[in-house]
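Input record (one chain):
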Amino acid sequence: MNRRQLLLALAASGAAACLPRLALGAASPRQAVIGAAWRGPNKSDPYFAGALVADWETRKLAIRYAVPLPTRPHGLLADADGGLLVVGVRPGTWLLRCDGKGDVTQQLRVDEEGTTARLNGHAVVGARGDVLYTTETDLKTGRGRIGVRDRRTLRKLAEWGTHGTDPHQLLLDREGHLIVANGGVPRTPADKKYDLHRMDSSLVRIDATSGTLLRQWRLDDPRLSLRHLAWSRGTGDADAILGIAIQAEHDDAAKRAAAPILAVLDGEQLLVPTRANDGIGYAGDIAAAYNGGFALSSNQAGLTQLWHPGAPEKMAALVRMEETYALAPWNGPGKGGGVLVATALGLVRAHPTAGPVAIPWPKPMALDNHWVLLDES
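The corresponding structure, as predicted from the sequence alone:
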């Protein structure tokens, strides 16, 4: 793989074709620092988390730091001074924190906490900044849990139910309460799916101070697993809607192929705005995108699509490349609207005022499910 291959693939993909082409503003940032997780090109290669620096002028990516990980990671959170908090993949047994130099400052083994709960791959910081909430599953009962942890020490302070099973991503709403996606998939302690006819996926709002259930929503089709979450705008924006990436679990392949991949929570209404999908029924990641919309990646289809509330019945191709997966919103020269897309070949940047840019990976590497923008300048 080289830069020419990536540029040719980008040109063939029609990346950002649905975005308006405007002049590049003079205030466009020169670089972005992205927190990411990856392994080498082979499935047996070790995993790392770290910071990648994208230089938009030279079209080069550099690894600022790389931290070896115990096993495969999943969710990442930006931490102080360019550091990261990394969560082990489901059923996760570790949390790891590193600083902006790549030094590991904390590593917690949750299987040594004296409970049967294991991590489900995602975390979010509370509104006051003092606690960390983690999605977990009690391996003994199979029920979903929220771990309430001291943000500084990572020590568990409390444990609440999610009123469902298989909780995955969680975010805060504008009141500081928790919004949790219960994926609803029954799983063994070894993470093997079973009895899918018993699926019960739901979206819940939970009081962030007491763990009390405030509201619960379900879609009509129980085989649609609600997985990843993103706000279309800042949570303080009254016009913000919540996007939920869906992964279909139907036994019938034709039903999976026709399944929707996006649900939205608009006010107090959970709905499926469009049946347009990826032909597979599997949205891997979701991120805020242009003017209140969402980008949804489908790594199995090699496709990232754009949905916009102004045309809610449609989806438009944003990037067509192998293994389009991790997504992150990128501010760029405007007030947001851009998306950073990880692909098999490298990073693709799309923005309504800047047009597409593609940069190959600095060395052979396979990016994991998620990444996060740490800084831009």
